[in-house]
Amino acid sequence: MSDTATVEAADAPDSTSRTPRPLSAIDRGVTDYLQHMGVERGLAVNTLSAYRRDLSRYANYLASAGLARPGDVTRRHVTAFVQALSDGSDGGSVLGVRSAARTVVAVRGLHKFWALEGTTTADPASDVHPPMPGRRLPKAISVEEVTRILEAAATDTPTGLRDRALLEFLYSTGARISEAVGLDVDDISLEGADKGPAIVRLFGKGSKERLVPLGSFGARALDSYLVRGRPLLAGKGKGTPALFLNARGGRISRQSAWTILKAAAEKALITKDVSPHTLRHSFATHLLEGGADVRVVQELLGHASVTTTQVYTLVTADTLREIYAAAHPRALG
Questions:
Q1: Which of 205, 208, 236, 272 is catalytic?
Q2: In this structure, are residues 183 and 251 in contact, taking their beta carbons and an 8 Å threshold?
Q3: Catalytic status, residue 205
Q4: 52, 111, 280, 328: which one is catalytic?
């Protein structure tokens, strides 16, 4: 752009109007910012081109709102533009979450630049955040498919007893594979498992401890392994507190746990891509389908955030037991 040029609304590829308009102080401010990003920040050509398109749409939006100077823009204008990206109310096309987020990043950078350069006295976009893309969770498999995998694990050898116990444990607790292989024998107690779900201590990210119920199917498999399998495996090693042992008597690795699940899935004729995380997400999905509250499921999974933790602290171990026993398909049997 030059100081003598006019700007067409069509410069913004999403705009439907093609009416020329005089170059404003906002347009000049956009040009300054793009030059800064291209020369001083060394932005890639394609990225700079995307910024130019995004900010052209923004400049046209502000012009249509009757704004000509950077200092005229308020937070209300910025948030209204963000909304326009989602509904096309500015005459432009509706953007997906990722494209809209990129545009908001460009707008935030523009206003920050203006504030740092003294073009404006405030930054109205400082607390306007881009939309967050939805997280895609791995697909869960059905209860019937999980059952086939669990029952495919052999139980006539020490390693077979271990495999069955490990897979039952993963599905029964929703534990991460790292949490399961990191368990020691003292982290579990099967006392009272015949009357209801036992409680297991899991250590998640950041060594955060949580209590998770263990259903009767998982408890029985684990008990069989502890009585008839683990002692024989432990005898081949040098002594370790680890719960799940390999054939040499040492702690089982994450890679070995993957192999165990893959072998069981193949034996069960499951053609879908199955991983330990598949069991974790199947655990959560089946609980929700069984009527469990999403906040309880998040507590069981060990998902932590400032807002959710405040809710989770209200959930007692007894409540977890009751909801788990009623909702999990293999809690009682």
A1: 205
A2: no
A3: yes
A4: 280
CA atoms lying within 13 Å on the CB side of residue 85: 24
Tokens at 215, concatenated:
């259903």
Spell out the per-residue pLDDT of the chain, length 333, in tens. Answer: 344 344 443 343 334 344 567 889 999 999 999 999 888 777 778 888 989 999 999 999 999 999 999 999 999 999 999 999 988 889 888 888 878 888 998 999 999 999 999 999 999 999 888 776 555 545 778 899 999 999 998 788 999 999 999 999 999 998 989 999 999 998 888 876 666 678 888 887 767 788 888 988 999 999 999 999 999 999 998 889 999 999 999 999 999 999 999 999 999 999 888 888 889 888 887 887 777 777 788 888 887 543 332 332 334 455 566 667 777 777 766
Query: What tokens does 246 get?
Result: 């390999």
Spatial contact of 204 and 179, defined as CB atoms under 8 Å apart: yes
Q: Global pTM?
A: 0.54
From start to end of the chain, where are the E strands? 6-8, 20-22, 188-189, 198-203, 209-214
CA–CA dist 242, 186 (Å, integer): 9
Nearest to 285 by CA among 152, 130, 138, 116: 138
Q: What SS3 class is residue 241?
A: coil
The DSSP 8-state label assigned to residue 304 in this structure reads: -
In the chain the first and final C-alpha atoms are separated, in Å, by: 74
Which is the catalytic residue, given 262, 295, 303, 321?
A: 303
For the question of residue 176 being annotated catalytic, the response is yes
Q: Is 6 helix (H, G, I), strand (E, B) or coil?
A: strand
CB 148 within 8 A of CB 270: yes
Buried b (16+ CB within 10 A) or exposed e, 297-327: bbbbbbeeeeeeeeebeebeeeebbebbeeb
- d(CA 253, CA 264) in angstroms, rounded, equals 17
What is the spatial distance between Cα 103 and Cα 13, in angstroms, rounded to a whole number? 13
Q: Token pair for residue 230?
A: 């683990």
Q: Is 262 annotated as catalytic?
A: no
Total H helices, total E strands in the chain: 14, 5
